[in-house]
Amino acid sequence: MSKTLFEKIWEKHIVKTIDGGPSVLYIDRHFIHEVTSPQAFTGLNKRGIKVFRPAQTIATADHNVPTLNQHLPIKEELSRLQVEALKKNCAEHGVELYGLGHPFQGIVHVIGPELGITQPGMTIVCGDSHTSTHGAFGSIAFGIGTSEVEMVLATQCLLQSKPKLMRINVDGVLNKGVVSKDIVLYILSKITASGATGYAVEFAGSAIRSLSMEARMTICNMSIEMGGRCGLIAPDETTFNYIKGKEFAPKDAAWEKSLAYWQSLYSDKDAVFDKEYHFKAEDIEPMITYGTNPGMGIGVSGKIPTADTINENDKSGLSKSLTYMGLQQGSNIKGQKIDYVFIGSCTNSRIEDLRMVASFVKGKKKASDVEVWVVPGSKQVEAQAIAEGIDKIFEEAGFMLRQPGCSACLGMNEDKIPAGKYCISTSNRNFEGRQGAGARTLLASPLTAAAAAITGVVTDVRELLN
After folding, report:
1. Residue 277: helix, strand or coil by DSSP?
2. CA distance linking residue 9 with residue 388, whole number of Å
3. Residue from 300, 238, 248, 257 nearest 117 by CA
4. Helices (H), 227-372
5. What is residue 464's DSSP assignment?
6. Cα distance between residue 357 and residue 447, in whole Å
7. 312 pLDDT exceeds 70?
8. What are phi and psi of 286, to 5 degrees?
9. Does residue 134 contact residue 86 with C-beta atoms inside 8 Å?
């Protein structure tokens, strides 16, 4: 019987299926951080039990850490307490922690792949919605709640209902200036921020196949923004070459055995999906959001929608969003004044993203009235950027290269966008107050963000490319 990629992995990890109910699913890798783990550890301690399989749990500090002066004590009290609790809990339960100062520290969804911890065919969870990032390797990866974090720590298993299955195909060749972030924002603009609710989404097609692993991670990262339970891409030679030689990748005979299994991970030709979409890569231009959910996006050359051009159910949402954003129906997004540019987050903070931006801004200067923060996703990315001289290019352009962390993706740490200010962000969410109370966020690719940093306004990067 033909099976999808998702079904092959799911069925291999079922411990028990409850009649008429969910399945007990075995979890291969569990990532934890300082925000959603303290309550879970408290629950274990109250029950007098230890982490069941600590070797399969990996911890790092990322959400609440400062991105300047990480060698100093954390100023913000709640952040400091959470990071200290993570240290204490990991020490007591024998969990590996990549804390501040560790060469492997970074955003949880950046360090897993770059260290070779994330591998095809795995089930991966974390108390963070963007765990879907790891699905780029052909794994089932999804975010869980704090009570579920406790469940996995205690049992290495999780109760889960099987989602419906969706495939999104993108075929063709991308235009100049269009990158993976534009692909996923385009898909979101077509199917909406709730279009994949209840589905596991497989991304396929020649345009997806042509992407690097880092670009694929950007796509899967934002599958949750469509309402998807997870997103995944079948592994191929690009995947295998990326993993090979990584710190925790299989070696020698173990590599050959793993590779043989990984090569079986694809959706069979006649596999059946509950829903399927087809898009053409040539139809995609550099994208940007104008509203307060990631589905409210348009091509940078387009106009903000008007009430008479959208679904009846979305009209009140459009009005509310544009009031918050201070934008007008039917107006051009291109030329909109920008105050901040944030290049980072688990969506776009990898070395490939930083190289892309550096290549574009080399020899240029940022607009004098725009503040630009570039936040690497990990200590390894930071070290690589410095080794390649990317830090010097940013410095000469007036960009600030900070230290690793989630930073201005979310208003949980010191890196907040002031109320009323416009920020082009390479992160994944543009909800009201996401980057700070009253902050106005426009999501875009690293290239589009870099173009705005140079010009001071929303810009079509294609006009500035050689």
Report:
1. strand
2. 38
3. 248
4. 237-243, 252-262, 315-325, 351-361
5. T
6. 6
7. no
8. -55, 130
9. no
In angstroms, the CA 41 to CA 146 distance is 10
* Residue 251: how many other CB atoms lie within 10 Å: 12
Reduced to 3 states (helix: H, G, I; strand: E, B; else coil), residue 440 is strand
Among 151, 153, 203, residue whose Cα is nearest residue 22: 151
The tokens for 141 are: 């990866």
**Could you tell me how many helices (H) and strands (E) the chain has, helices first?**
15, 19
Task: Show Cβ contacts of residue 41 under 8 Å, excluding neighbours closer than 6 positions.
Answer: 85, 89, 92, 93, 150, 153
Task: Quote the tokens at residue 175.
Answer: 């235009």
Name the token pair of 297. Answer: 């996006």
Q: What whole-number distance in Å separates Cα of residue 129 and Cα of residue 59?
A: 16
Chain centre distance of CA 69: 25
Q: Which amino acid would we find at residue 201?
A: V
Q: Under a CB-based contact definition with an 8 Å cutoff, are residues 140 and 122 in contact?
A: yes
SS3 per-residue string spanning 242-262 = HHCCCCCCCCHHHHHHHHHHH
Of residues 265, 296, 272, 33, the one with CA closest to residue 143: 33
- Give the pLDDT mean for 201-218: 98
0.85 exceeded by the pTM? yes
Average pLDDT for 187-215: 97
pLDDT above 70 covers a percentage of the chain that reads 99
User: Considering only CA atoms, which of 138, 109, 114 is closest in space to residue 126?
Assistant: 109
Phi–psi pair at 73, nearest 5 degrees = -60, 145
Q: Which two tokens stand for residue 268?
A: 């069979």
Q: Which residue ranges form the domains of the chain, and what is each CATH number? A: 5-160 (3.30.499.10), 164-283 (3.40.1060.10), 289-463 (3.30.499.10)
Instruction: Locate 336 and state its tokens.
Output: 């909109």
> What token pair was written down for 265?
């991970």
Yes or no: say if 128 and 36 are a contact pair by the CB < 8 Å rule: yes
55 class by beta-carbon count within 10 Å (0-12 exposed, 13-18 middle, 19+ buried): exposed
Please write the tens of the pLDDT for every residue from 233-266.
Answer: 999 999 999 999 999 999 999 999 999 999 999 9
Distance CA 222, CA 244 (A): 26
Residues in Cβ contact with 108 at an 8 Å cutoff, skipping those fewer than 6 apart = 31, 32, 33, 60, 62, 126, 128, 131, 346
d(CA 321, CA 326): 8
Q: Which of 216, 226, 236, 127 is nearest to 170 (CA)?
A: 216
